[in-house]
Design brief:
This protein is mainly β and 116 residues long. It has a domain of 68 residues. The chain is built from 1 helix and 5 strands. The chain has a 5-stranded mixed sheet with strand order 4-3-2-1-5, with no helix packed on it. The termini are far apart. The mean pLDDT is 76.
């Protein structure tokens, strides 16, 4: 019984250490940038050159409050404030739906419904 108790305490210590967030005093913010195009990072500025190729890049920032700026080649820019420590996901892809309404038949509805 004593061995089970000591094993349980040892396992709890290992689990608590493995699940810890690391150094809680660090002010690191990680940003995972997903974009359709080339991603260029210069300081706190992320430049995007659009294309049809999917790219991902992980960028780390230090500081209490970080403001990043995203610039595109069409002249548009947007700023984002990172106030809390952790991992952020920045999705710069244009969401596109492909397809459309297809009518089958004259009215687009079945002409006859049968039961078996």
């Amino acid at each position: 019984m004593k061995n089970v108790f000591l094993s349980a305490i040892g396992f709890a210590c290992i689990a608590a250490t493995a699940c810890s967030g690391g150094n809680t005093n660090s002010s690191e913010k990680k940003v995972v940038v997903m974009a359709s195009g080339e991603i260029t990072v210069n300081g706190n500025t992320i430049k995007l050159d659009p294309s049809f190729r999917h790219n991902e890049q992980e960028v780390s920032f230090k500081g209490d409050k970080v403001s990043i700026k995203v610039e595109s080649t069409d002249g548009k820019s947007k700023s984002f404030d990172l106030t809390e420590n952790g991992i952020y996901v920045l999705n710069l892809q244009k969401d596109t739906l492909i397809g459309g309404l297809v009518s089958y038949g004259e009215t687009g509805k079945p002409g006859r419904i049968t039961e078996q």
